[in-house]
Write a structure and sequence with these properties.
Shape: globular
Strand content: 5-15%
Number of helices: 27
Oligomer: single chain
Distance between the termini: 34 Å
Structural class: alpha+beta
Largest sheet: 5 strands, antiparallel
Radius of gyration: 29 Å
Length: 797
Amino acid sequence: MVLALLIVIVFWPALFQGRLLLPTDQFDTMTLPFSSNYGPPQAYNHNLTDAMMQSYPWKVQAQKAFRNGEFYYWNPLILNGYPQYAASSQTYDVFNVLLLPFDLPYAFNLILVFELFTAGAGMFILLRVHRRRRIIALMFATAWMFNGMFLTHLLNSWALATFCWVPFALAMSLEYYRKHSTHYLLAAGFFLGLALLGSNLQSAAYAVVSFVIVTGAWSLKAKGSLSRKIFMHLGVPCAVALTLSAIMWLPATELFLESVRHGTLYSPTHGHPYSLIDRVLSFVLLSTFFIPELMGIVRSVSLTSIAGVHPLDFSGYLGFTEMLMGVWAVLSFRSSEESVRPYVWLVAAGFLLPIFTPLFAWLYHRFFIVGTLGLTVLGAERLEAFLTNTDLKQRGHTLAKWVLWIGLAAFGLLLIANLVWTLSPSVHSAIESFLLRHTSGTAYADGNAAWVHDRIAGTFEHYSVLSPMMLIPFGVVFGVCVLVLKWDRWSFTASRYFVLTLLACSIIQTVFWWRSFLPMLDPHTFPLVPKNRSITFLKDRLDGSRAFIDRRAYPGHQYLFLDNLPWLYDIPQITGYESVVPRSFYPQVKQIFPNAPHPKALGLMGVKYLMFVPGVVPRGTLPVADSGAVTIYDDTFVRPRATIYYRSQTVPDDSAVLRQMFDENNRHEEVLFTDGSEHPQMLSDSSVSSSAWEAARIVKEDDNSLDIAARPSRDAYLVLSDTYYPGWKCFVDGKEQSIYRANYAMRGIFLSAGLRHITFRFDPLSFRVGSTISMISLFSTICGALIMNLRFRKSRR
């Protein structure tokens, strides 16, 4: 009830007042074409861009598919078609069941709230299994529920959807370690499987690593042979988890391998040049996790930028007391209980691997969530010991004195800095100029000068000693230190009330921080999906074709749209943003034409309209279809999305295919195949005077199927400009026929002369196999757990 009440307090505006957690102010006021209707430029929290570029669109697509009875879904609106279900974007998170009865965006809010409550409940149970008293378990469950990584990645949900289940898995594993009943192992595997289902491949690996480190250490202490211990403690639950989540990771692995072999892996952090200086600065900045407000995020310039790290990933806050107790436990782990010592390795791995090893390129600082999990359990054990162990009380008093003096020194330095920039206009101007140079060229800075100046002013306001963002956390630090030093000298401060007071201090700081980070915007002021003249133009005229939206940054101009945002308007586009991209044209367009691509190449991909910021003109001479906040050009070179070709050619490799496709002097009268790829026969109609290609008609379309009517006059290839990807099947007049990779990344089929009815249907084998394995695993796990539980009960009678 306490956990639920705290969530209601934090999310009251989103749950009961219709407010949006999504950063709609950023898109309505800072990107074209919306900013022509909404202003001035402002963004409460611009760090949450991915919430609108990915997280929310994912839920829109998932709700649409689930309500149509589909658990796999192809997204035809981005990248000429994309296997959205396989992007492991929380597609199979069990809380997605809320998408069925509740409409978006409210369902989006509910999913986050239920996941947070699950995280808190799971940690409470884990700490109770570790035999922590209720009030301490509640305190640290609250800290885990509201930890920094959950907050900063709340709208992306990967950390929360995964790690809300990990404490349950660890609790069941610990019960097996103590009671040796196999049904606890099956339960641990079941909860670990839920963690994997709610994740992507990266966070799934984090969850498995966390489970293996802790459970593996427990298993080494158990009786029996090493091989049997590893099999029982690790093999059984991991096997259950992997089979239960096969519906997620089999399609995700297929997409990942397709992208590694033929496509693109993209992340702003992947391959980031993380220098030695960055690593040292990052290590120093870990101290700010005690007072996360020192980072200066949201409305001010973040300190994390000096270490070259993303402010969303660089977060590990738990609450001052919880963090202090956790770090104390790590530094003196030999005095901890044996059952919690494995969490020390979890902390070491979680915080040191992403900073001091080359694994940063794959882990990023978001791996801190692993260390945060360890600190939560260790901190609870240390507080319990502090209340009962006389020696630890004395050490705790010494620690509190040091922390108090450090806190006073930090506050004193902050006060001096305030006096200097207040009394010295030149210093204030120098800092302002430095921040202005620092923000120049960053995302959204161009074209939003007023917003940049507001952020700089917000930085001075944020670090003012009179700011609530400084007074509250420092007040909590001083209050907790004094309480630790004095509590056992006051007769009325029984341990229960002492912990309650510590809990109250943490709640004050944490709730204040969460409410200051989340947007909670009024949809009437900043609509979620605002209408606009340019959008209406595209929706009314595309008619199955695609748009190319120029997303390059131009000095002095605002961004044009955001990747994937047109998806919310059902506007199909060649562009789009996903971290894992199979063979696709858009990455090639950006590589071959870093400036404006030629409209002829885009026309081959089914692009009918090109959208640019005012003053930017595409190559070639194209008529203006609409002008206003943005300029829309009519691509006169557009080919039908389904085109019949009577000529074909085989070229040496994919590079040669792309050279021909992007050659603006090429007439593009042949379908191109790569030498060595599968295709039935070559066609040559060089002697025929009629056109080398003609249009086919799309009769019916939904996300996972497409019906086409074609009447070739002779043998031909039908080429669909949609992305070629495993899982698509084709039926010509009811008979299945092979699909060939044509024109680098399009789907081609061979047709004989005559009227033909063609159906493309997305029916991925990876999903069918994965879902079958998952269903068998679920049934077997439940039945096995019930049987084992009955045997366990009988054996204890």
